[in-house]
Amino acid sequence: xxxxxxxxxxxxxxxxxxxxxxxxxxxxxxxxxxxxxxxxxxxxxxxxxxxxxxxxxxxxxxxxxxxxxxxxxxxxxxxxxxxxxxxxxxxxxxxxxxxxxxxxxxxxxxxxxxxxxxxxxxxxxxxxxxxxxxxxxxxxxxxxxxxxxxxxxxxxxxxxxxx
Length: 163
Fold this sequence. Notes:
- The chain is α/β, with parallel strands linked by helices.
- The longest helix has 18 residues.
- The protein contains 6 helices and 5 strands.
- The chain has a single domain, classed as 3-Layer(aba) Sandwich (Rossmann fold).
- It is globular and about 40 Å long.
- α4 links the parallel β3 and β4.
């Protein structure tokens, strides 16, 4: 049986999202440790730069891109770049980490209290997976929504592209 990470990478590969731009935190390390050899990761030192690099790459190459951000602060730091990507009609899927489930509701440092709401003004679909097993389905929905040409954000994960 595939792990959650393997299932996510299968969904991303099927959607053509094998280039990832990111600024990961500790929450994303297990996912990144399982990255297959046919994926490439472009590391940035600030989320604003990461989403802007992904936006430019997607526009120049025509390829869809996964953007991997770290938690609430990462999502907040990326909002200006996400706004530009929205108006550029870039084919992006954006994910953001979250603190461990046991701390949700405690408003611990870097927790995204209502992750699905943060980017909603810019996207048409947003969802936060309730548990690890929901992550591949949530990413699959984000990929399908991006293909359909609708702006989306999947939970602590999101996508953007217009028709």
